[in-house]
Structures are given as structure tokens and as C-alpha cells.
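input
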Amino acid sequence: MKGHFATRALSIDPDAVAPDGAEVRLLCALAGGSMAHFRLPPGACSTAVVHRTVGELWFVVAGEGELWREREGVAETVALQPGVAVSIPVGTSFQFRAAAASEVAVVGVTMPPWPGGGEAVAVPGAWQAQTGVTSSPTRITPGSTTVA
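output
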């Protein structure tokens, strides 16, 4: 039966840095989607991006912040705090930021699984990006929970 299931604990160190600048800790994946933990440190603001082929569902697990998202001329900014879930459909421009005194951390499911480089395209956002993430970006291998 080994190989049928995946179990993975949240790592202390990030596995990668997302194209938007958030820390990424990979969790589990199936053929239809992948799950990861995304984090911005206090006061950080991601780069605004749009995903070309994947949608995401987020659930905030820690901290406070804001999410801006825009699609087809409709934009909104929502508060991020533990217990809040948000959707980011394919083709939605989005950006998130942590409160000045608090990190913000979310568990996100990407559907289909993250395909690799070129998926996220930088776009104009609501705020000036400032991630504060100092580690080098690492490419995520498509369809897996390993880092290339």
C-alpha cells in the first residue's frame, strides 16, 4: 500500500519562494490539485500577479492582512484573518499583504497542480510590492511536492 497516500508536516524553512514573493511550504498533491502553505512576514506585500491556467482556494490560518483581487473589471479588497476562505479563479489579478505588526499565513489549494515557470504573470496591483523574503527563489517541479 505504500505510495498510495501522502503525508507531510509543515516545514520550518520554506521550500520555495512563489513568483509573487511569498514563502512557500509544500504540502500534499493529487492529480487534480496541490496544497501549500503561503506566508508573508509582518509588513510585507506580494507582487501582484495573474495565473494563466490555475485557480486557487485559500484558507487563512494565522495573522492578519488584506487581499486585493480583480477580474473582468470587478475589483475588491478583503480582510485576511484566521478562519477566512477566499477564491482566486483562473485569470484573476491578485495581491496580498500582511499587517504591519503581523505575518499572514494561508493554506492554499491550486487546481490543477502548479504547472511551473511562466504560470504567474506580474500585473499592476493595488500596493507597492515589498516582500522582505530574502531567500533565493526555487523552482517548484510541476505535479509534485518536490522542489527542483
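quick obs: DSSP finds no helices and eleven strands in the chain.
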